[in-house]
Sequence to fold (164 residues):
Amino acid sequence: MLEQPIAVASRWLVATSLSRVLQDVDWLVPAIQTLHIVAVAVLFSSSLLLTIGVLGRHARELPLARTAARFLPGLYWGLPVLLVSGALMITAEPERALPNPAFQLKMLLVLLASAATIVLARRVRLLPDEHRAGAAARIAALLALALWLAALVAGRFIAYTLIR
Ligand code: HEM
Fold:
């Protein structure tokens, strides 16, 4: 069902002048991939430290809202950088990512992880002076962390997944 629109989108993208520049300038794609990996490290370590804080295993002396204010920016900055660097990698080689089941699964996981992170941020914002998170915030934090980890693994498998 999706094959046709994906094939049309790939043919259109690969013919753009931006795609040609990304293909012709040898160092561009490796530089963008490096930026993508650095952004993954920032996003994932922020999610991990935020989860440890919400579970009360770190900075217990701080109100939860302060812990969130310290680590949420890593997610808020990391995700747009991943989106732009990812979009450029797709533009350079659309046929490598768009029809790839690992890539499609990853995009679904990124959406779910973003939703869980928004739920967590909202829960913590409701508890400005609390030092201990309720069950809902703990579950949202662990779920978001697990989904970001799953997206990371799916991202790595893009290069090793056969496109039928
Ligand atoms: C937000 C939108 C994102 C887009 C559009 C995107 C797109 C891509 C693309 C096209 C690749 C290259 C795949 C290849 O050709 O091998 C890639 C690689 C990768 N992505 Fe993403 N990505 C996004 C977010 C993320 C997130 C949130 C994570 C992890 C939490 C992530 C982790 C990875 C990893 C680990 C790789 C493999 C890097 C490598 O080995 O060079 N990406 N991504």
